[in-house]
Specification:
heterodimer; A: 1010 residues; alpha/beta; B: 467 residues; mainly alpha; globular
Chain lengths: 1010, 467
């Protein structure tokens, strides 16, 4: 090995993994070491635990290895000869050392350069990320085997080239320095070998008992390999029980689909066929397995240009969702009242439904609209609504002939019916569980406190936890096994529509993590297969291709497995008679939701997601309690006032956030915060809503909310959410738009071109002329662009305190504005990157020419030259410039080096930065096309924000290319420039927002102007 | 060689009132003795207030050192600035100090050319004040940089990067305006000192002091040809310094006027900044000179006439400033620009409305008392008013710099500005530094021009002879 100079990567990984060193030596006090390292007091680089701990043994050892010279230097009485001998010897030794000494770190030179690997040029690999069990197809950018950036896979139906926020942030989680690095037995380092011994014994014993007492807890999974493994397990040990816990997803939708279809099924929508969409508190465009595809379908029907008639979206919701922000009519209703409204709507649509009381007047108009578009409408039930709402929605769809067109019932791709976390708690309490394997979830954090899982879990004889973090659950498990990140291990998963993807890893497990496959394989008596072999072995049985190897290669390469039949359509699905509704609760309701950016809490240690402004509030680093403006007035609440929410005698305290459009009498609390063992980023911030979550109705509870009198400092990135008489967002109704297609600019006074202090800078821009167009009509405000930009451009995370001081660093922001009524406001989202003004006010005021204009119209920022006067930011009317007030980039944590894009400078303290239109991508395309002696074609440069956008709201390209998409967008009459009266001549322009309100509902549902 | 001890009984210390710039009974000798006596006062007779003041100032210098060290260590993020408020205390204080630095040269140069008698006795003192204020001001643009170690990139020097400063930036103009002003002020001040340094040389004891003053006096022997050339040079320098008084603050005002920010983008700024600068400069002269003349018992040399004239200048420039404010308000309404009108409305009623109310109180309302002669002749009241005006002028810069930045064009990016401890520490530190230098100055150099007061004595004798 040494001769060839080549060290396989896995050997390198093993050499670096501190696990091995722990095998050899008695383990030092890990807890103390962990706290020393966490406090930042330990050495920055350490090879063994002893070294990090700076123990006395280590010092002794060092002394023995390299004893001081004192003993060897001859005494004064030594003769010349022996002195010379010693000197010669030491000289020779010095020379020898100089010749043979290797660097202390292992280096891995290329003996032969691998094919296709060109240092400096990234490679893209297709894979998929399971999000709540369902696949999102990805292409992952890899720089010399180091994944740096995630993009959507255009060939994957659940991505279509886009991604959501979690996919973008997942690459940071891969390099999270707080991930668990060791196999631990009762909190002390152990080894894989030791663990395999234990699990082999246990598996054998369990098989002997038919699996009695063996419990496996996982999240939702669609992995065909894992399902087949579990099937093998249940075949082998029929009494083994499989429990599923996915805190952000509840089985109610699946249960309703089961009721409708008569077997395990799921509902798939086709919004591209829908003229009228009614959302009953659904966040379908954002928070669902098919969210990206649905958003794309929805956007395709929002077009108003060239005579197209857009679809109409009604949103009925208590807690504003991302999808609801684009609604043409938004009706705020208590979450508990939505079932009643659904029944009223059903009744008005001709469905047999027992609705209590009188319907609000808008129901008839909505029902009429739905009835007018038979077969072209759809009612979508909320993910967190009870079964009755799902059934009512399906009944309406059925009655109006939408089933089979806009909504289809297909066979479920999830596993066989499994047990819930409540079942597990019961079984544990009853002492029925002897061995518990927790593969992934973190139930001791993410289950209702009322479930009392922790003492129950201690009744199991052996608890094995596979997890990426040593967290709340691992703390109480006997064994903790580091889990491989999805970019580190082979697996597979299926998308919402059944498309299968083989997840290939891009990097060896950084901390020696294992996948669920590798654990379960012991239970089915196939010990120690690698996840690659397991997955490939499974697909060997599935791909009926004659040449399996070629089919496998193609499937892995494409990111989509061809030839897998889509889940069969369920025929004869029928809505049952709607169950009678319980009397609606009249008191205060508490609505439970996963956090918009942290989800169920599994993302709590991700700085990008923590600092991502939540779409509804623009708040970062905390979960708040959302309060309607009316309730805030009644309770005389201010933003940040502490509230105590009590449900069933348990209570949590959190800060108030007054959210326009929130339903009165309803308070929303979010999961994901209040983590106790999440890592440096996520521990100890916010409140833990699981503490008050009811077991029976996990998404809604009757409760009380009281003011505690305390106040809490919140960090939000947008203080003012009214437009204050300015018109950053220009909007019209469809009717207005038809009459005045150029409504955004109709009343603008043209600014004389030479209205500038210096000279009329009519530079011809003969080469490329980059420009961007942002369609406000389809921006849902999902904020994926913000985090994609952060990942692409190495944007630093600054922390809550700095955000609260107004120093967040995002190059693109999504402004949220409200207009009209506080209780039924109209919502606007506006992404704002740098406008790349042709007449840039920032450029003329820089004293050192650190920001200049390129011949392609880019407003460039030269970090090296910047001295940090901040004059440019003061003079930027859009305030898109960001300043490194302190040293924000993490230059200390080696593991975070991995996530950085090598094509973008990591900024240091004291320099300004801003959106560059992804200059590095432009340059890459230009170099590539210059080699081919041609111009860059449209679509060859895609900015990070554009690439990630699920609704394709952002278009970018060369304005000198008449065929370019962006040029066509900019020619639309509803194009306008932000603050164009300043004669800045922005290259980024907007397309005005056109709402499509129902004439019959004029003046209601957030359409005061309409 | 006479003794250095001032003979307190030689001439009675009498403030001759608002009509004379010199107390009665002075001759050449008594003037020299009195002024040089301040410098040669032995440590025992040095006023206790001097020791106390120097100690307190020293403590604030320490605070400045701490604040600056921490700043260099961590970055400008220790201050309250953010996006959108990219400029905060550093720029406010820079403009404030530069403004204060206007009085000295104005008194020495412009009043010299206008042959105003009341400039004598206070010109040296206010010139020193100017220099120290400019030194404080000059610190801030460098401290305020994100990467202060690269400040020299603002200077046009040939370099291997082939890069020059960007000449369209008003900050670049500042570099030249301020450095020119500082240079000319130093030269003007030093040239004015020469005859007095020679006088000190002639009276200093012991020898090492004599030698120091001898070197500093550049061989001045007081010959007629010396005097002849000296007066020409001084006149020329006064002519050179005069336009600078107007240009420095004009260019500083361009930092704001050239920007497109509502509240900054105003053509009225240059004259209104210059008037404001003189306003605050005279206020600072009074703030310092009133305790100085009382501690060192110099009421016969710095008389009520000096104080009253300063008060009158303050009243006049204060009125110009008031006019500036009213025009700013008027145009923000009259122009019909929604951003401008919102900006002014926001100043008056927004989150920082209290600073605006205080500004009007300090800069416009209270100084109207100066119309009353009794107020102008009431030394403690005058001193209090001078401090009020200093505060007012600082608030004016706060309004312009910070409040304008908090709410500009796009509402989503509005912010708030809350200065931190380090903002205040740096500001207080420069105040300490300024006073520290002033205390040292009065101890080692004649704070009043000896030869010019002698000229006054001579002039008065001539008048007597003429009778």
């Amino acid at each position: 090995m040494k001769d060839s100079g080549f060290i396989p990567l896995d050997a390198l990984q093993r050499a670096q993994a501190p696990v091995d060193s722990a095998e050899r030596a008695p383990s030092p006090d890990l807890k103390a070491l962990r706290s020393r390292l966490a406090a930042g007091k330990g050495p920055a680089f350490w090879r063994t635990l002893e070294e990090a701990a700076e123990t006395d043994e280590l010092r002794e050892y060092v002394e023995q290895e390299f004893p001081g010279l004192s003993g060897q230097i001859p005494d004064a009485g030594t003769d010349r000869r022996s002195l010379l001998k010693v000197m010669a010897a030491s000289l020779a030794m010095a020379g020898a050392a100089a010749c043979t000494r290797q660097p202390t770190e292992l280096i891995v030179p290329y003996v032969r350069q691998p094919e296709n690997v060109i240092p400096g040029l990234p490679m893209f690999y297709a894979t998929a990320m399971p999000l709540y069990g369902y696949a999102r197809g990805l292409l992952v950018e890899s720089h010399l085997n180091r994944p740096t950036k995630v993009e959507g896979n255009p060939d994957h139906p659940a991505s279509l080239g886009a991604t959501g926020i979690f996919e973008q942030a997942s690459v940071l989680s891969l390099y999270d320095p707080d991930r668990s690095e060791n196999i631990l037995y009762e909190g002390r380092p152990s080894t894989w070998a030791e663990f395999t011994g234990v699990i082999t014994r246990e598996a054998e014993a369990a098989r002997g008992r038919n699996g009695e007492g063996l419990a496996i807890l996982t999240g939702v999974t669609t992995s065909p390999t894992f399902l087949s493994q579990m099937k093998a397990l249940t075949d082998m040990s029929p009494s083994a029980k499989w429990y599923v816990h996915e805190p952000a997803v509840r089985e109610v939708a699946a249960k309703a689909a089961h009721t409708i279809a008569g077997r395990a099924a799921s509902l798939v929508y086709d919004l591209s066929q829908a003229d009228v969409i009614v959302s009953l508190e659904s966040d379908l465009l954002n928070n669902s397995p098919g969210g990206l595809a649905y958003a794309r379908q929805f956007a395709s029907r929002r077009s108003v240009d060239n005579g197209a008639t857009p679809c109409r979206l009604y949103a009925i919701e208590s807690s504003p969702t991302v999808s609801g922000s684009l609604a043409d009519h938004r009706f705020a209703a208590k979450s508990g009242d939505i079932a009643g409204l659904a029944y009223q709507l059903a009744k008005a649509c001709g469905v047999q439904a027992e609705a209590n009381g009188a319907a609000p007047d808008w129901i008839a108009a909505v029902a009429q609209d739905l009835s007018n578009s038979k077969g072209r409408g759809v009612v979508i039930p909320g993910e967190y609504q009870p079964e009755s709402v799902h059934l009512a929605a399906f009944a309406i769809n059925e009655a109006l002939g939408n089933v089979g067109k806009t909504v289809r019932v297909v066979e479920s791709i999830e596993g066989p019916s499994t047990h819930t976390i409540e079942d597990l708690a019961n079984d544990l309490t009853a002492g029925k569980v002897e061995v518990l394997l927790i593969l992934g979830p973190n139930p001791l954090y993410s289950t209702p406190a009322a479930l009392n899982l922790q003492p129950a879990m201690r009744r199991a004889r052996l608890v094995i936890r596979l997890g990426q973090f040593y967290d709340e659950t691992s703390k109480w498990a006997h064994w903790h096994i580091p889990e491989a990140h999805y970019l580190e291990a082979w697996s597979d998963s299926r998308a919402f529509d059944g498309t299968a993807t083989i997840q290939q890893p891009l990097i060896m497990p950084i901390y020696g993590g294992k996948s669920g496959h590798e654990i379960v394989t012991f239970l089915v008596n196939q010990p120690d297969l690698s996840s690659h072999d397991i997955v490939k072995g499974y697909w060997n049985t599935q791909l009926k291709d004659a040449n399996f190897e070629a089919a496998w290669q193609k499937a892995v390469h494409d990111g989509v497995v061809g030839g897998i039949p889509a889940p069969a359509e369920v025929t004869g699905a029928k809505a049952p008679a709607l169950p009678a509704l319980p009397a609606p609760e009249t008191g205060t309701e508490i609505v439970f939701r996963p956090d918009p950016t942290i989800g169920d809490g599994s993302w709590a240690n991700n700085g990008w997601l923590q600092e991502l402004p939540k779409p509804q509030t623009k708040m970062t680093w905390d979960n708040t309690i959302w309060v309607s403006p009316k309730d805030a007035t009644t309770m005389s609440l201010q933003k940040g006032d502490m509230l105590r929410v009590t449900v069933d005698g348990r209570s949590v305290e959190g800060p108030t956030w007054i959210l326009p459009g929130h339903a009165e009498g309803s308070f929303t609390v979010h999961f994901g915060y209040g983590r106790e063992m999440s890592g440096r980023v996520g521990t100890g911030i916010g409140y833990n809503a699981y503490k008050i979550q009811p077991v029976a109705t996990p998404w809604i509870a009757a409760g009380t909310v009281t003011k505690t009198g305390g106040h809490y400092r919140l960090a939000n990135t947008q203080e003012t959410q009214t437009m204050a008489g300015r018109e950053p967002v220009r909007a019209a109704t469809l009717a207005e738009y038809r009459e005045h297609p150029n409504f955004p600019t109709e009343f603008d006074k043209p600014v004389p071109n030479n209205d500038t202090l210096y000279y009329n800078s009519d530079y011809p821009y003969k080469g490329y002329k980059w420009g961007m167009s942002i369609d406000l009509n389809v921006c849902t405000g999902c904020s994926a662009c913000i985090i994609a930009c952060q990942a692409e451009n190495n944007i630093a995370v600054v922390g809550k305190d700095q955000v609260a001081r107004g120093r967040h660093m995002h190059w693109i922001r999504v402004d949220r504005y409200y207009s009209g009524d506080l209780d039924e406001p109209t919502l606007y989202n506006q992404p704002v990157p740098c406008m790349q003004c042709e007449n840039a006010p920032c450029e003329v005021v820089c004293p050192v020419a650190a920001t200049t204009h390129s011949t392609e119209g880019l407003n460039q920022m030269v970090y090296n030259r910047c001295v940090g006067t901040r004059y440019c930011s003061n003079n930027c009317p859009y305030k898109v410039r960001r300043f490194n007030f302190l040293l924000y980039s993490d230059w200390q944590t080696p593991s975070l080096y991995g996530v950085r894009n090598p094509d973008v400078t990591v900024r240091s303290r004291g320099v300004m930065e801003k959106c560059s239109y992804c200059m590095q991508r432009i340059q890459e395309a230009k170099i590539e096309t210059e080699k081919q002696n041609r111009r860059v074609h449209d679509g060859e440069v895609i900015t990070a924000c554009q690439q990630v956008c699920p609704t394709r709201a952002i278009r970018f390209g060369d304005l000198n290319d008449p065929k370019a998409d962006v040029v066509k967008q900019k020619q639309l009459p509803r194009q306008y420039a932000l603050l164009d009266d300043l004669n800045t001549r922005p290259r980024t322009t907007y397309l005005g927002y056109v709402r499509n309100p129902n004439e019959a509902l004029r003046g209601s549902g957030g359409n005061k102007q309409g | 060689m006479e003794t250095n001890k001032v003979d307190q009984n030689a001439v009675a210390i009498v403030d001759p009132g608002p009509d004379s710039i010199l107390g009665p009974g002075h001759n050449y000798d008594s003037v020299t003795q009195r002024i040089a006596g301040v410098v040669f006062l032995d440590w025992k007779n040095t006023p206790k207030n001097w020791y106390l003041g120097l100690t307190v100032a020293m403590l604030f210098v320490m605070l400045l050192m701490t604040a600056v060290s921490y700043l260099f260590l961590k970055g400008v993020g220790i201050w309250g600035i953010n996006i959108p408020i990219g400029w905060g205390f550093a720029i406010i204080n820079f403009v404030w100090w530069i403004g204060i630095g206007h009085a000295g040269t104005l008194i020495s140069a412009i009043l010299f050319l206008l042959k105003q008698d009341f400039r004598t006795s206070i010109n040296r003192f206010s010139e020193a004040m100017t220099l120290f204020a400019v030194a404080c001001a000059g610190m801030f643009p460098i401290l305020h940089l994100g990467r202060p170690w690269l400040f020299y990139w603002l200077l046009p020097y040939p370099n291997s990067m082939y890069l020059w400063p960007q000449p369209r930036s008003p900050l670049e103009w500042d570099v030249f305006a301020v450095s020119t002003y500082a240079t000319v002020s130093v030269v003007f001040w030093y040239v004015g000192l020469l005859p007095d340094l020679a006088s000190l040389r002639d009276t200093a004891n012991p020898l090492w002091k004599q030698r120091v003053y001898a070197v500093l006096s550049l061989g001045w022997r007081g010959s007629a040809i010396h005097w002849h050339r000296y007066q020409k040079a001084y006149l020329l320098l006064a002519g050179l310094a005069t336009p600078l008084v107007l240009s420095v603050h004009t260019i500083v005002s361009f930092d704001f006027a050239v920007a497109i920010l509502p509240g900054w983008h105003t053509t009225i700024f240059p004259p209104y900044f210059v008037a404001g600068a003189i306003y605050s400069g005279f206020a600072m002269v009074l703030t310092l000179i009133i305790p100085f003349r009382s501690w060192y018992k110099l009421q016969d040399l710095i008389t009520m006439r000096h104080l009253e004239c300063c008060a009158k200048v303050m009243l006049g420039t204060g009125l110009i400033v008031a006019y500036g404010y009213s025009m700013e308000a008027f145009f923000s309404w009259y122009a019909g620009d929604k951003y401008e009108s919102f900006m002014y409305w926001n100043r008056m009623t927004g989150p920082y409305a209290f600073t605006y109310a205080l500004l009007i109180l300090c800069n416009i309302a209270l100084p109207q008392l100066l119309w009353i002669r009794k107020v102008r002749l009431n030394v403690p009241l005058l001193w209090a008013l001078s401090i009020v005006i200093n505060i007012g002028m600082w608030l004016e810069r706060f309004e312009i710099v910070a409040t304008s930045l908090t709410r500009d064009f796009v509402p989503s990016s509005w912010g708030t500005y809350i200065p931190t401890f380090w903002d205040w520490a740096t500001y207080a530190g420069t105040l300490g530094f300024f006073l520290f230098l002033m205390f040292l100055f009065v101890r080692v150099l004649p704070a009043i021009s000896i030869f010019e007061v002698r000229e006054v004595v001579h002039h008065e004798h001539e008048l007597e002879h003429a009778k």
